[in-house]
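hey m, so remember when u said the tokens were messed up on ur end? i reran from scratch. heres the input so u can diff it against urs
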Amino acid sequence: MGKLMILDHPLIQHKISLIRDKKTGTRDFRLLVDELAMLMAYEVTRDLPLKEVEIETPVAKAKTKVISGKTIGVVPVLRAGLGMVGGILSLVPAAKVGHIGIYRDPETLKPVEYYCKLPTDAAERDFIIVDPMLATGGSANGAIELLKKHGVKNIKLVCLIAAPEGVSAVQKEHDNVDIYIAALDERLNDHGYIVPGLGDAGDRLFGTK
């Protein structure tokens, strides 16, 4: 079973409170989501493999460590996931970015795929899927399934806020995917929104209604 990690660092929890507040405007919301993604990426990349190399400092030769192994890919689920990409790239600038477009049908709440563009070497990369909200889990499962169809073996899902229903849905369909979140909320309402949540992350990021 993939692990569920709730990142409870004080800075993360503080910023989650700020983005929940309905008085937080678009500019500040966007900056906070970027900062949260960067803080979470620090934990998500904790298990990256290292190798020993020899370098020369201004004083002497030294053996030290650098990241080795597979390179990373980042995939935002359009459109809200775009707000989390910059924060991760600030820590892992060599990562390549794919895009997956999935929307939730308002009547059935089922995911509908409309776009998928991945790096040509996707099968050789470890991927981080980013989406601020994990509600029903439909979009996340759709994105994971698309990556697996392209040969990706190692996938992590990173969301700011999740509902128990969404976590359960992903764990049921993809039990080898680790989930990283900053907050596990109470439930979904009848419209598929997370309660208490923060509203529509895409609208708040881009100033739309």
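this time it looks ok to me. The radius of gyration is 18 Å. if urs says something different then somethings off w ur setup not the seq
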